[in-house]
Design a protein that fits this description.
four-stranded antiparallel β-sheet, single chain
Length: about 300
Amino acid sequence: RVLDMSGVVVILAVSALVMSIFSFSLFGKGIEVFPSGEPDVATINISARGNLSLEEMKKLVLEVEDRIQAKDEYKTIYTQTSFPQDGTSRIGSITLEFEDYRQRRSAAVLLDEIRKDIQGLVGMDVVIEAEEGGPSVGKDIQLDIFASTEEERLNAVEKAKSWLYEQKGIRDVEDSRPQQMIEMRADINREQSAFYGVSMSDISMAMSLVTDGVNVGEFHPNDSEDELEMRVRFPIAYRNLEQLMNINITTAKGIVPLTNFAKISFSYGDTVIPHRDAERYYSVAANMDEVAVQKA
């Protein structure tokens, strides 16, 4: 009988297909490829600028850690301090692993409590980021700042950050200005160095004895899979600026102070120079607190 009514069957099948598509467009909630879920991990990134020692960085990071009140809702708290990498000013991070979501409050509530606990910290920027599912898309607000001079770029970054800090519902403000490190520069008087018969490598080696040392070879310990460098340098008591200014070099004309043919100076320099479309730029980014924004 179905074969006798094939036309009706086809019409009903096509109608059912069209109605299902139409109904889904009206009442369906759409498709979410990467649905947001309750995060199990959150990271607190600490940034600070200046020529800080590792101990000074550790002190700042531990100051943040001390503000985080221990709770049964945290499974582990892992703190790490390190020198800034890749031109950033990040000096450390604190990783929080939460207990099972059925045995604790939501991560949003816990992170809001942490933000209140760390208020008032000076000398550092603290950004809290919860674990995200799917590909990373960055922060909610992202500004790229271009200008013809470095001074204009820096001023624009400061103004943008100040404006964001004043807005309600804006948090986790940060920028991409690279960490500035101290550069040591030696301007060589080539006529003087040629007169004393001193090469560039001789000067570099002499200065390295006061800084990171001279590599004289490698050896392979029995308890290690990797080779280790052997470096020669002065004892720690003599690795300072005063010793660098008083260092002597043996030349064909006798022992001569390094300062006779080298002028040593120090200045701050960027570790990374970011470009986009062949132009220098800095970026400013921030997150939005959806609840606070809706109330505002």
